[in-house]
Amino acid sequence: MEEISISGESIRLGQLLKLHGIAETGAMAKDLLAAGEVSVNGEPEQRRGRALVPGDRIEVLGQTIAVAAG
């Protein structure tokens, strides 16, 4: 599992996917979400604007990413 530290209270899911290098663009992030390739805390997620907070776990393309406070 990998961890991403955020400096604010939250980060949008689309931003995290781009920051982590999983999606090069917002459109690529949207496609991953629409294809059902992303889950947050074990639940499928399709909203690119979903706010993620420290403690959330994201699963995408076989990777698990934990959001941590920076």
UniProtKB/TrEMBL annotation:
The keyword RNA-binding applies. Keywords: RNA-binding. CDD domains: S4 (cd00165). It holds the Pfam family S4_2. It comes from the Bacteria. GO terms for molecular function: RNA binding. The keyword Phosphoprotein does not apply. This is RNA-binding S4 domain-containing protein. It comes from Brevibacterium rongguiense.
